[in-house]
Amino acid sequence: MTRLLPILAVLASVTPALAQKAEAPAAPAAPAAPQTFESEIRNNKNEPIGKIMIRDGANSLVMRLAIQAGGLPPGWHGIHFHAVGDCSDIEKFEKSKAHVNHDQSKHGLLNPDGPDEGDLPNVYANADGSVNAEVSSETPLTGEGGLKDGDGSALIIHANADDHSAQPIGGAGARIACAVIK
Ligand SMILES: [Cu+2]
Ligand SMILES: [Zn+2]
Asked: Where in this protein does the record put region Disordered (predicted)?
């Protein structure tokens, strides 16, 4: 607060001059509504365990995960956007391929040579296996490099936490849940 005082004092001294020159402010343009997308999350038994809700604005994508009680093992889980929107091989979810990565970066939000465009923060499953989380990404939903490209993408939830630096997936282990983004 104390650092603001000199600035406020300067503002006070110039405000009358500004007020005289001020023109009617232009009406602010209404911001474009974010694009939205929802998809069901399924586990290795093809059971629905929750959903993802994506909102993509002008500069960032925000994704909420809502997973019901019993959905995941308790604790931290790595999550990533994988390159192909195919969750049909429910036992391993390998058809979703590797992480979204259009510029051949290394994996890991904390890797100096990273991250992949599909890398995301971990989420924490409560003791009852439920999750409510919200993460952001610079990867867009549509357009160049977007998640909804020709073959789509998938949100994969892993068995373990992502350490955000080891190759290729931060030690996050098996793929235990998947949601198609297409
Ligand atoms: Cu992954
Ligand atoms: Zn990665």
From this structure: 97-116
